[in-house]
Design a protein that fits this description.
The structure holds three protein chains of three kinds. Chain A is mainly alpha-helical. Chain A contains four helices and one strand; from the N terminus they run βαααα. The N and C termini of chain A lie far apart (about 60 Å). Chain B is mainly α. Chain B contains eleven helices and one strand. Chain B is globular. Chain B starts with a helix and ends with a helix. The radius of gyration of chain C is 22 Å and the shape is globular. In chain C, helix 3 runs antiparallel to helix 4, helix 12 packs antiparallel against helix 13 and helix 18 crosses helix 19. Classes of the chains: A mainly alpha, B mainly alpha, C mainly alpha. Chains in contact: A-B, A-C, B-C. Chains A and B meet through strand 1, helix 1 and helix 2 of A and helix 1, helix 4, strand 1, helix 5 and helix 6 of B.
Chain lengths: ~120, ~325, ~525
């Protein structure tokens, strides 16, 4: 048992070294033990679509618009509706409301401080 | 001379104990425990052929996948990237083990809990995400999308829950270094004996378990894998050695996350802190209790939908953790 | 004694910039302009590095222009913090100028482009170097006008012109408000020299032979001036709710300019906030109560913009827009670090105070490197994907050029703050400072921001690395790849050299924000006349 008392920076770098070492060892073990992709074969395996041929889908890509539904249209629906459609709507007047209320807040703080 | 000892100790800790070799064995054993128990709750036998009570089954599965099958030649995506990210994830888990007090070479510094979160939470999550994404398939991407949606709340919940004992220990004891995993592990038991600090600790432990459940994609948070619905979600394209690698990464994550709850929240070897053997037994017992709770949770829920999953993590993970943190701050104000 | 190099950089660089259109009438070979601009920004880099070495060796240095007595004349004043930010600006700008030689290789308008790009650099360096609040206004205008013009550089594209107009309109409001703030300051303090203002606000001596005592309602004027200038500075650094212009403006600019705007221009606002709230209206000053309130506002706004930037990243379809929102998020984090100085959170000189400020500047550096790396990578990706910015159409081009892919991943890891990249160490300091200050809730929110931003980065990595090819892959030439390599290595180095860097930054922050440091800022800036 020995505790290494290092400063945070050196300790983090040390542990990153440990990360690198164990990654390397793991990779070597994996490479030596595993049977890798046959190099000679030019046959590709198609993406697995539940046993159907890959042609049943238009594209293997998912549009980025369809990512994170759970957050964007699920749990965070109201938040995103507000953020996207009401706040970041690109209308200069609406921006102005936020920006001007901010300077209003600052002025208010200044006034309160002065009145005090 | 000292440098040589240090290097030898580092290599030993990285590769043997608590590093790769022990990590592998312990992860496989944890997988066996979960599988066996899970099967028993469903009145199945579970693994029973290889070794006594089938205890060697996960080892056999791992070796079979690694040695006997081949990596397919994927048309889309990159096998090499998947391999690299899988190995990096395991490397990150190994590195985070050195922060725990079980390691012969222990790294401790002020606020090292942040490093733990970044190694164990962020590096591992990113590795899993990118490993799956590397093999392009619509179902994989859907799984990745769901997994990252859950991580958005699961990571902060785990962070907040971990901060609670760390913060309480820094308030109630004079342990050095402050906000450190090993200091917390040393004094965590004292938080349970004090009724004032036990309340936030209970909340934080619940939060930690909920977030671990979701980080491991266990039911009810098996949304990213979602058998039948998404084929197999994040693991759809894995087969052969890559599947072995991913399973190892997942089991290692299960092992270390549960170990952290056992050590950092429940105080590890306490009440036998001075006896190495009894202490190790106590830690193992606590660890198995945590693993059992995780398995019971796993077996007693059906799958949520993704937005239900997210709001459940918020409700039973993030909010209890935040309340626990608020209570800790109040306790800090009283002290 | 004072060094010519402190004063000469900005005027000479502006001269070099404004000669360009004239040269453009005579010389028709575009290669000449690439070489000229690169040489000019290399010159700026060398001088900035030299100035930095002087300051590190000899402490605060001022330069009075034309030999005028400081409260009357304009003076430039360099301390450790601003000379470091200037060095960062000059080095990243040098790489960006080099990259521009590839990006606009066939563009007929190259002289004008480079005039504006150098103008942008002059503006930034001027803002950072200046020791005069009015000169800061002038330099903000120099910087902003170059930026407006560069955003609308593709004047055939309606979106670019619209973005430039929006940016310009609100930018003009911001600089004008800052100007009005200066009017208040000048009316009540009789001076605009930062060193002299520091003296008067901190009551070191309170009197000056030229600018005299105080005039009128000093407290009221200070309060209003601070409110107005903070609004302008947060506009320049795109902090919520003044961030609206950024996601429109940054993507529409030519890519190297986006890198400069997102990586460097936003720093100027942060730096100015720091200069105002830690040097002039410092924790020891007579207005520390107001300062505490304002720092609470910046804390809340920093957290809000961190959250909003991260949330909006998750729903972007445009690679540059995604990166622009990431800028908002990161500048929010930097501002959170700066806000530690409120006396409600920490005492000046305490561990949390120094950690927070060190973390803020460290994060500023990490973000500048990481964000310019990602924007420049995005430029190559867009080129390789045939000119589209839409994430869906990128077709995984980064995977087919391993260096490009590596640069992308390194940039993302740097911004996500993953050890051993620099981003981790700055985030570590931010977390640690708020835990130390007894405000773990702020640390939790920082963690939430990081977790949410993961969504955006996954989106970026997925689209740029793992989607299937949509069209023929166009290979970019060696020059941009080398620049990406340099910046990637820089990202790693900020991590690997973290023991040294954090030590230096800590020393700089302590030297700049301690009472002695502030006194020294005044003395060096103000008494230069006698010290020559």
């Amino acid at each position: 048992m020995s505790t290494l008392n290092l400063d945070p920076w050196t300790a983090t770098l040390f542990l990153s070294g440990v990360l690198a070492l164990s990654t390397l060892v793991m990779y070597l073990v994996y490479i030596t033990l595993s049977r890798k992709t046959p190099q000679t074969s030019s046959e590709y395996s198609e993406p697995y679509i539940g046993g159907e041929p890959a042609s049943v889908i238009k594209s293997v890509d998912v549009s980025v618009r369809n990512l994170f539904w759970g957050v964007v249209r699920g749990a965070g629906r109201r938040l995103y509706t507000f953020l996207r459609d009401q706040m970041h709507n690109g209308i200069l007047n609406d921006w102005g409301v936020y920006m001007l209320s901010y300077i209003g807040l600052l002025t208010l703080i200044a006034l309160i401080y002065f009145m005090r | 001379m000292e440098e040589i000892t240090l290097i030898a100790l580092t290599v030993f800790s990285t590769l043997v104990f608590p590093g790769l070799l022990t990590l592998w064995i312990a992860s496989m054993l944890s997988e066996w425990w979960v599988r066996k128990l899970f099967a028993r709750t469903q009145r199945r036998m579970g693994p029973s052929y290889v070794g006594p009570l089938g205890i060697l089954q996960p080892f056999a599965d791992f070796l079979k996948l690694l040695l006997a099958k081949t990596e397919p030649n994927y048309r889309h995506g990159s096998v090499k990237l998947a391999r690299i990210f899988g190995c990096v994830g395991i490397g990150a888990i190994t590195a985070s083990l050195l922060l725990l007090p079980i390691s012969p070479l222990r790294i401790a510094f002020n606020f090292d809990v942040i490093l733990l979160i970044y190694f164990l939470g962020v590096w591992v999550a990113i590795s899993e995400l990118l490993m799956s994404t590397s093999l392009t398939n619509p179902f994989t991407i859907k799984g990745v999308s769901r997994f990252s949606s859950m991580l958005v709340v699961a990571e902060p919940a785990f962070f907040t829950a971990t901060i609670v004992p760390v913060y309480l220990v820094s308030l109630t004891t004079k342990g050095e270094p402050v906000f450190s995993v090993s200091t917390t592990a040393e004094f965590a038991w004292s938080l349970w004996t004090n009724p004032l600090t036990a309340i936030p600790m209970i909340l934080a432990t619940i939060a930690a378990l909920v977030s671990i459940q979701s980080k491991l994609m266990f039911p009810p948070f098996n949304i990213p894998e979602a058998e039948q619905e998404l084929i197999a979600g994040v693991v759809t394209e894995f087969s052969g050695p890559l599947l072995a690698l991913f399973n190892f990464l997942h089991d290692a994550d299960l092992y270390v996350l549960s170990l952290i709850v056992a050590v950092v929240f429940l105080g590890g070897p306490y009440p036998f802190s001075d006896n190495l053997v009894l202490g190790a037994l106590a830690t193992t017992a606590k660890y198995l209790v945590i693993l059992t709770i995780i398995t019971i949770l796993k077996s007693s829920f059906g799958r949520f939908r993704v937005e239900q999953g997210v709001s459940t993590i918020v409700k039973y993970g993030l909010i209890p953790a935040l309340v626990a943190l608020a209570l800790s701050i109040i306790i800090g104000g009283l002290a | 004694m004072y060094y010519l190099s402190v004063g000469v950089l900005v005027p000479s660089l502006i001269g070099l910039a404004f000669v360009l259109p004239l040269l453009g009438m005579i010389i028709k070979n575009i290669k000449f302009f690439h070489a000229y601009a690169s040489a000019a920004s290399l010159y700026a880099l060398v001088v900035a590095a030299y100035n930095f070495s002087i300051v590190v060796k000899e402490g605060v240095k001022a330069y009075p222009f034309g030999g005028w007595w400081p409260p009357i004349g304009i003076s430039y004043e360099l301390d450790e913090v601003n000379s470091l930010i200037a060095l960062l600006t000059a080095s990243v700008m040098f790489l960006i100028t080099l990259y521009s030689a590839w990006y606009i290789r066939d563009l007929k308008d190259a002289p004008y482009y480079y005039t504006l790009l150098l103008g942008l650099e002059v503006g930034m360096l001027g803002c950072i170097y200046t020791g005069d609040a009015f000169n800061l206004f002038v330099m903000l205008e120099v910087m902003s006008i170059s930026a407006y013009a560069l955003v609308g550089f593709y004047r055939n594209k309606p979106e670019a012109v619209e973005a430039a107009i929006k940016y310009g309109l609100f930018g003009a409001v911001a600089t004008t408000l800052y100007f009005i703030g200066l009017v208040f300051i000048y009316a009540s303090f009789g001076t605009l020299n930062m060193a002299d203002l520091t003296n008067k606000v901190t009551l070191f001596w309170g009197y000056d032979l030229v600018s005299g005592y105080y005039y009128g309602q000093v407290y009221a004027a200070t309060a209003i001036a601070l409110a107005l200038s903070l609004w302008a500075f947060t506009f320049k650094s795109a902090v919520f709710p003044n961030h609206f212009w950024l996601p429109d403006a940054h993507p529409e600019a030519p890519t190297p300019v986006s890198a400069a705007l997102s990586g460097l221009v936003v720093n100027v606002g942060v730096y100015a906030t720091f200069r105002f709230l830690y040097t002039i209206f410092n924790p020891f000053s007579a207005v520390s109560g107001l300062r505490d309130l304002i720092l609470l506002v910046t804390l809340v706004l920093g957290l809000a913009s961190g959250l909003i930037g991260a949330l909006m990243m998750a729903v972007q379809d445009d690679i540059k827009r995604l990166l622009a929102y990431s800028t908002i998020s990161h500048i929010g984090l930097v501002l959170v670090g700066l806000s530690i100085g409120s006396s409600l959170l920490s005492k000046p000189g305490s561990q949390a105070f120094v950690d927070g400020l060190t973390g803020a500047f460290y994060h500023l550096i990490n973000h500048s490197l990481g964000k310019s790396l990602l924007f420049l990578t995005a430029g190559v990706i867009i080129y390789a994907a045939g000119g589209t910015r839409r994430l869906d159409e990128l077709g995984g081009v980064a995977r087919r050029n391993p260096l490009l892919g590596a640069a992308l991943i390194i940039g993302v890891l740097q911004l996500l703050g993953i050890p051993p990249f620099g981003g981790f160490f700055s985030k570590y300091l931010l977390y640690a400072s708020y835990l130390e200050a007894g405000a773990p809730y702020i640390s939790v929110i920082i963690n939430v921001i990081s977790a949410i931003s993961l969504l955006g980065y996954v989106r970026l990595l997925y689209a740029a690395l793992f989607t299937t090819p949509k069209r023929e892959f166009v290979r970019a030439s060696a020059l941009p790849t080398i620049i990406l390599l340099i910046l990637s290595v820089a990202c790693l180095i900020t991590g690997i050299l973290s023991p040294i860097m954090s030590e230096w930054l800590r020393r700089f922050v302590e030297a700049t924000t301690s009472r002695d440091g502030i006194l020294n800022y005044w003395l060096q800036g103000y008494l230069i006349f006698w010290g020559r």
